Amino acid sequence: MGTSETQAQAGSVFYNWLNEKKQPLERAQELAGHKWPGITEKYIKVNSQQQWELINKFFPI
Questions:
Q1: Is residue 43 a contact partner of residue 22, using CB atoms and an 8 Å limit?
Q2: What are the structural domain ranges in the chain?
Q3: Which of 12, 17, 20, 60 places its Cα 20 to 30 Å from the Cα of 46?
Q4: Separation of alpha carbons 25 and 17, rounded Å
């Protein structure tokens, strides 16, 4: 994801619903009028450290 995309998402209403107000994905999807969950999911902030910990837990090197 490019810098401009990240900045655009951070200023997005959808981003705020999901990451700041902690709205459930289904509620944010309904409010946004998105038909498919994947459209709304792209606005969820990803915790890279948590992902690495899960990967290392289940797939140790």
A1: no
A2: 3-58
A3: 60
A4: 9
Question: Could you please report the per-residue DSSP string of 13-53?
Answer: HHHIIIIIS---HHHHHHHHT-SSHHHHHTTSPP-HHHHHH
Question: 61 pLDDT exceeds 90?
Answer: no
Euclidean distance between CA atoms 16 and 8, whole angstroms = 12
**pLDDT (0 to 100) of residue 57:** 92
Q: What is the pTM of this model?
A: 0.53
Express each pLDDT in 24-42 by its tens digit.
Answer: 888 888 888 888 888 888 8
**What is the torsion angle, in degrees rounded to the nearest 10, for the CA atoms of residue 32, residue 28, residue 55 and residue 1?**
30
